[in-house]
Amino acid sequence: MRFSLPPSSEITPEGVYLNRRRFLATAGLIGAGLVGTGSIHALPPRDEAQPKPLGKPYGLQPGDTPTSWEDVTGYNNFYEFGTGKEDPAEHAQGFRTTPWTVRIDGLVEKPGTYALEDFLKPSVVEDRIYRMRCVEGWSMVIPWRGIMLADVIKRAKPTSKAAFVELTTLMDPAQMPGQRYPVLDWPYVEGLRLDEAMHPLTLLATGVYGRELPPQNGAPLRLVVPWKYGFKGIKSIVRIRLVERMPRSSWMQAIPSEYGFYANVNPAVDHPRWSQATERRIGSFRRIPTLPFNGYADQVASLYAGMDLRKNY
Ligand SMILES: Nc1nc2c(c(=O)[nH]1)N[C@H]1C(S)=C(S)[C@@H](COP(=O)(O)O)O[C@H]1N2
Ligand SMILES: [Mo]
Fold first, then answer.
1. Are strands 203-208 and 189-193 parallel, antiparallel or unpaired?
2. Fewer CB within 10 Å, N- or C-terminus of the chain?
3. Global pTM?
4. Residue 234 Cβ < 6 Å to ligand 1
């Protein structure tokens, strides 16, 4: 397991991962279950090894096809379980997600701490297929299952002072080995402006491919914001807090020059260490052009009218 930030030379390291899997497959080891790669444990029974993607496509472009279950659940960023792409699938396996409580508080009329079941129950669960783009230059198409974040925020009744939402991951170093190392300033924190959080595309996901979220994907509850870089999609959420001022996210705190609060996918604004003009779709060797707002400009560009998105990266 690795607990350091990946060096920039490895920042598009999916080739390494694919090559290893390909080698193992060729050697006939994966199917035989002889290799302890993480995703083996996450795989459903053999006859359903590739579940059908479920859901309504949102913003998919010609040529977009859902990324395989194996890649969605085997190639992850979840630094609480290691910084290698295959670490989370392997080391999050025993993660306990029941019981789970979610607190919603801050500038709301109805703060509360809920058992996850009660927190979810009043909301409509939907299956939606979204394009997802990591700041590292790779992307996937993922069939999520979840509820609208707007729905839970409305129920808590934000006061007129509420302008931002801060979300926090579970802090549990006994279960999350990465939290014993100073990779980030734990617990992982992310934030959205209130209008971004209320946008109908913004989901709290509880599942993927019609199944419960595997731990490596952020079980039991994680954020999905398809027009922003993946790091906004905070996993294993325990707290949602309405606040007046812009929250400081873990990534802003760690490397402010590289990871801003907005994190809108923007091919015109390079990361300080690499171009963001193209992306590699996991599961293929093709690089494809990155689209403004990851292809969701029609739905979300108006949220940023009048803002300089080079400054507000
Ligand atoms: N708590 C927490 N949430 C996190 C991360 C993390 O390290 N810790 N990584 C982020 C990053 S960089 C990405 S790209 C996405 C990856 O989500 P996926 O593994 O489900 O594709 O999760 C995001 N959420
Ligand atoms: Mo990411």
1. unpaired
2. N
3. 0.89
4. yes
Shortest-distance Cα residue to atom 11 of ligand 1: 231
Residues written for the chain: 313
Residue 67 CB less than 6 A away from ligand 1:
no
Q: How far is the CA of 308 from the centre of ligand 1 (A)?
A: 26
In 3D space, the residue among 291, 210, 193 whose CA is nearest the CA of residue 245 turns out to be: 193
Q: Is the CB of 137 under 6 A from ligand 1?
A: no
Ligand 1 pocket residue status of 313, Cβ below 6 Å: no
What one-letter code names the amino acid at 181? Y
Q: Specify the CATH superfamily of domain 54-304.
A: Oxidoreductase, molybdopterin-binding domain (3.90.420.10)
Pocket test for ligand 1, best of 86, 132, 231, 232 (most atoms within 8 A of CB): 231
Give the list of residues 6+ apart from residue 88 with CB closer than 8 angstroms, or none.
Answer: 38, 76, 77, 78, 81, 82, 215, 216
Q: How many angstroms separate the CA atoms of 217 and 236, rounded? A: 9
Ligand 1 pocket test, candidate residues 67, 78, 91, 136, most atoms within 8 A of CB: 78
CA distance 77 to 82: 8
Question: In angstroms, what is the span from residue 134 Cα to ligand 2's centroid?
Answer: 4
Domain regions of the chain by residue span: 54-304
Among 75, 73, 68, which Cα is nearest to 15's? 75
